[in-house]
TrEMBL record:
Residues 169-222 are annotated as: Domain III. One of its GO terms (molecular function) is four-way junction helicase activity. Belongs to the RuvA family. Has three domains with a flexible linker between the domains II and III and assumes an 'L' shape. Domain III is highly mobile and contacts RuvB. This is Holliday junction branch migration complex subunit RuvA. The lineage of its organism: Bacteria, Pseudomonadati, Pseudomonadota, Alphaproteobacteria, Rhodobacterales. Homotetramer. Forms an RuvA(8)-RuvB(12)-Holliday junction (HJ) complex. HJ DNA is sandwiched between 2 RuvA tetramers; dsDNA enters through RuvA and exits via RuvB. An RuvB hexamer assembles on each DNA strand where it exits the tetramer. Each RuvB hexamer is contacted by two RuvA subunits (via domain III) on 2 adjacent RuvB subunits; this complex drives branch migration. In the full resolvosome a probable DNA-RuvA(4)-RuvB(12)-RuvC(2) complex forms which resolves the HJ. It comes from Roseivivax lentus. Residues 1-64 are annotated as: Domain I.
Length: 222
């Protein structure tokens, strides 16, 4: 299983990137959102990957974070959602958007992805809602760039760090808020829904603010 690719971009296509790793070229399929983050030809790139194995084909799919890779794996487990549909959902919503949509039961957000109908969107939400909390609590740190002994290009120094557009601090705040609510006795599902709503209402909220907002949402209504 190929779980990580770190090398030099040879070219970018409409739905994939060719990455040269020590003279071997790997075609890695990515969502539009991920492709927008991949640098141009000749630049360094590092991606988490998932290998799809079928009788007639082997395909690599690339992601800038483990959270996005995990959502791809889970989305692919839903009947009617293949690799293309999964990338469409992730490309439209991003991993945090997928987490919020599923935690909140917002199948209309999932339906906004190209090629996803209402029945499929509802199935995604219904089948994955119990798994949203564990994914939301995952470490959101971006992928480490290639280390000096991982890759040397044309005898030059080690490749420069790969810049990620993700915001680990905010994602970490969601994870910490989920943990705090769990310690207070709230179930994973209701905690995930409340944190997702709080994060959606205030994308810049820190851990304390998320906890306060989530508790207000969870408070019994008069």
């Amino acid at each position: 299983m190929i779980g990580r690719i770190a090398g030099r971009v040879e070219y970018k296509g409409d739905d994939h990137v060719l990455v040269d790793v020590r003279g071997v070229g790997y075609i890695v399929f990515c969502s539009d959102r991920t492709l927008a983050q991949v640098p141009g030809p000749g630049e360094a790139v590092a991606l988490f990957t998932d290998l799809l194995v079928r009788e007639d084909i082997l395909q690599l799919f690339g992601f800038p974070s483990l959270v996005e890779k995990e959502w791809h794996r889970l989305l692919m487990s839903v009947q009617g959602v293949g690799a293309k549909a999964s990338l469409a959902i992730l490309g439209t919503l991003g991993p945090d958007g997928v987490s919020r949509a599923i935690a909140l039961g917002d199948w209309n957000a999932v339906k906004a992805a190209k090629g996803i109908g209402p029945k499929t969107a509802q199935r995604v939400v219904n089948e994955l809602k119990d798994k949203a909390p564990s994914v939301m609590a995952m470490d959101r740190a971006p992928l480490r760039s290639a280390a000096p002994d991982d890759l040397v290009i044309d005898g030059a120094d080690a490749v420069p760090p790969v810049v990620s557009s993700m915001r680990p601090s905010h994602a970490s705040a969601q994870s910490e808020a989920l943990s705090a609510l769990g310690n207070l006795g709230y179930g994973p599902g209701e905690a995930a829904s409340a944190v997702a709503q709080a994060a959606s209402d205030d994308p810049k909220a820190d851990t304390s603010a998320l906890i306060r907002a989530a508790l207000k949402l969870l408070a019994p209504k008069a």
